[in-house]
Design brief:
Helix content is 47%, strand content 15%. It is α/β, with parallel strands linked by helices and 298 residues long. It has 2 domains: 180 residues, 3-Layer(aba) Sandwich (Rossmann fold); 74 residues, no CATH class. Strands 3-2-1-4-5-7-6 form a 7-stranded mixed beta sheet, sandwiched between helices. Helix 5 links the parallel strand 2 and strand 3. Helix 2 packs parallel to helix 5 and helix 8 crosses helix 9. It is globular, with a radius of gyration of 21 Å.
Length: 298
């Protein structure tokens, strides 16, 4: 009996060790690989400066730059190609670019070659390379809805923030501000994503390009025409792209349909996650893309 109990205890201990080791890992390896391929294909070097600035403004419209200390230290969590880090680096003292994909970080290094106040780390949001309360700010745009445990990822980021530190996050919305017909259209597109995202890149890339040309571009142009007549286009699918280049459409079509793991959150769900992680002063941007939220560490 004693020997049997000891063996069970040993097996349980080993199982707990494995669980603890896995608990630091908050990534889906196939998703990481797909994003590395995406940023290698769309390095964003073809993204013109004015368009980069306009999209950056959409994401950072609610970011309280004035609340940061002088020469703040921050992190871009899931930096990808470094397209937003290239703008943020000019505004801060130091910026750490974090990504789980070495391939993506290679692209970011090339794009930020002239930035002396930026460093790069291969890591996921299960275990970030920062001490507790080390950062003045952090942002994660379009990343945390692609990880297995979004709430735990936010908690790990908040661990790294100083009291009063700022966190900006963009998470795919649960279409909670859209009518039923819009949500039904999304369900059809999501079924297509489930199939396309599992194809090899030699098929996934051209199919996503076709979606950009056959879906994104015509719907975006239709919205642009409607807007010129004075009509509101906020309710139209893909109206966000009405003033965007085809390069951005191709990038985002691959981003949307080439990713296996995608989760969506309502405003209430995002608010609950942020509060649970010790964040306060939560505010949401009223402009697309939805949802962008900013908060402070208590």
């Amino acid at each position: 009996m004693f020997r049997s109990t000891a063996i069970v205890h040993l097996l349980t201990t080993e199982r707990q060790k494995k669980m603890n080791l896995h608990s630091a890992d908050n990534r889906d390896s196939k998703v990481v690989q797909a994003f590395g391929e995406e940023w290698a294909r769309f390095s964003q070097q073809s993204l013109v400066a004015s368009e980069r600035a306009a999209i950056f403004a959409d994401y950072f419209a609610i970011f309280p730059w004035s609340l940061l200390p002088e020469a703040p230290r921050g992190a871009d969590i899931g930096c990808g190609s470094g397209r937003w880090a290239a703008v943020v680096a000019d505004k801060v003292g130091h910026l750490a670019c974090i990504d789980a994909s070495p391939q993506a970080l290679d692209v970011a290094r090339r794009n930020l070659m002239g930035a002396s106040n930026v460093d790069f780390h291969v890591a996921d949001v299960g275990s970030l390379p920062f001490a507790d309360a080390e950062l003045d700010f952090a942002y994660s745009l379009g990343v945390l809805h692609h990880v297995p445990d979004t709430g735990r990822a936010i908690a790990e980021i908040v661990r790294c923030l100083k009291p009063g530190g700022i966190f900006l996050v963009y998470l795919y919305y649960a279409l909670d501000n859209r009518p039923l017909w819009f949500r039904l259209m999304w369900r059809a597109s999501n079924a297509a994503r489930g199939l396309i995202s599992r194809l090899p890149s030699r098929l996934r890339f051209p199919i996503c390009d076709l979606i950009a040309a056959g879906v994104y571009w015509p719907l975006a142009k239709f919205s642009a025409l409607q807007e010129k007549t004075g009509m509101s286009v906020a309710h139209l699918p893909l109206s966000y792209y009405r003033d965007k280049s085809f390069y951005v459409m191709r990038t985002d079509a691959l981003d949307r349909f080439g990713t296996r793991l995608e989760k969506r959150f309502s405003r209430n769900e995002i608010t609950a996650m942020l509060k649970d992680c010790g964040l306060t002063d939560i505010a949401f941007s009223p402009r697309a893309p939805h949802w962008c939220a900013v908060a402070r560490k208590a």
